[in-house]
Every structure is written in structure tokens, then in C-alpha cells.
Structure prediction request, 319 residues.
Amino acid sequence: MELAGARQRGLPVAGLGVLVLAAGALGAAGCRAPAAGGTASPPNPFAADALWDDGRAEIDAYEATIKRYGILRPLTAYLVVVKEDLSKTQLVKADPGHDPGDLRTVLKLNHVLNYPTGIYSYHQMASCFFDRGTMDLMKLSLTSNEWCGNTYKEYTRRDGRGTLHVHTYWDNQAEATYDLPTGPDVVFYDALPLWIRSLPQSAGTERALRLLPSQIESKGPRPEAQAATLVAAREEGIVVPAGRFQALRWELRTAGGPPDVYWTAGDAPHVLVAWDRGDGGAYRLKWTQRLAYWTLNRPGDERFLQGPPPAGTRSTGSR
Prediction:
């Protein structure tokens, strides 16, 4: 699919379904539009793309399955990518008017999961904050709740030191702090859906990793890094609910288990098209749109979760 030209013209793209919306009322309560200012344009071509400066977020919806209690649970999973200005001292999103000297521009990935397990449901979101200049992970936070209890985790990286704080409802894991290794080869599993897109998108790209396990769970044991290899194996076609894509196949290989396989679209911004998890779970792209989602909080705005309008339909932010 040829996305770049249509993206620049702000037109819907058939198959992929990119929807460009006006930024709208950016001062809405709750989530706010990214503040002006921040760091200079970074060298990483993916992170430096002017697409991220348009005042909107990329919303990717997936027909997915997640394994819980040994059973694959169907759901719609969402990956949300947006540029923000972060306070370097507080590691939270900066309000407009924040001290410019305390700002760092990041790309934030939200991974949103809601799915039933019998009588009760899981509600989980992991947020990864990447320095826009380096795509290093600065912060990872998780909330997980269901009828058994609430869990919160927060990883921060300051002055080269990585620290994970966990607060869970599990015995002997009520509260703990772990020092974690850092370095260009240390990557959280939860960062991969966006971090892979920032790598050179060509067959043969390979990275040796010290992989830290997923934090999207209610328990909070000490994470142990595992040797892994991430390799862009080949280009191939793949068909998903959003259409047919020419994609790059990535394989995440670890000892003692089947690999995870990721497919990134050949055209920038290399949207994650599909993902086969080693535990049997799977993601298949249903649609992707660019939305100022923090403005879409009125009754009826739920219709945007149905995906973009048909090709050729002009959208002004309401439909």
C-alpha cells in the first residue's frame, strides 16, 4: 500500500483506512493535546517523521486473542501512539506553559486491553514513553484491575539507572522495588510493538537483546532479562481485516519457546499489521486512524471505534 502521498494530502487510504481529523478542542478536560515546545527534531527517521507533529494520535485497532487462565480470549485490542512533551523531572506529561528547560519530547505507546473471563473482566493498559531523539524507553507504567484486585507498576530510567516499582494485591508482592539493567540492548517486551517500527525496515536487520518480560499482568515478580534475537527475516504479503499488505516479517527468538512474529507495513510509518505471540495469542489489524481522541468524549463519539469512513468520505471530526 502506498501511504505516504495520501497521508501528506490528508486523504483516506483504501485498505489501511487512515482517517485524518481536525485536532478540535484541544483544551478538553482529562487528556490534553501535546504542548508546544520540547526538544529539537531527533535523528531517528521514524521518530522524526513530521506525522507525529500533527496534533493527533495514531489509533490502531486489532482483532485479537489474549491467553488468560490457559484459554484464548477474543477482544479488540488498541495500540495508541502519540507525541507528547514530558517533564524530565516528574516524568509526566507537561502542561502548556511548563518550563521549557524541563521538557523532553517523547512518543507514547498505550496498549489497551479489556476482555471478559467468565463472570468478570480484565482492564489493563501499559504505557511506554520513548525519548524521541533515541527511542530509548524512559518510562513504562501499567494498571491492571479485575474483581480480584488492583495492580500498578512503574518503570523509570534516570541517569542511566532503571528502576521498577510494583504495587500488587498478591501476597509477598504488595510493594517492591527492583533495579534493572539498562543499555541499548535491554528492551522490555511491552515496548516492542512500537520500538520495532523505529528500526531499519529492511530484511536482514538484526538485534541481539536482553529482553525483559511483559509487565502486563497483575503479579509483580522481579523481572529477569533473557537473551533474545530480533531479526527481520523477509518481506512477504499478509492479509488482515484491514486489507492486504506488503510487510516485513520480524521474528523474536528466545531459548525454550516458539518465537513471536511481528509484521510491519512496508510503507511509513510502518504500522504493526499483525502479531503472533509465542503463547498462541494473535493480533490482526482491523483499522488505523489518526484522531484527536481526547476531544471525542461526547455521547455518540463511540462511532469512531467502528473505524474510518468509506474511502472518499470527507471527515471534519464528526460523523
Observations:
- The chain has a mean pLDDT of 87.
- The chain has one domain: 4-303.
- The two ends are 26 Å apart (CA to CA).
- The longest helix spans residues 4-9.
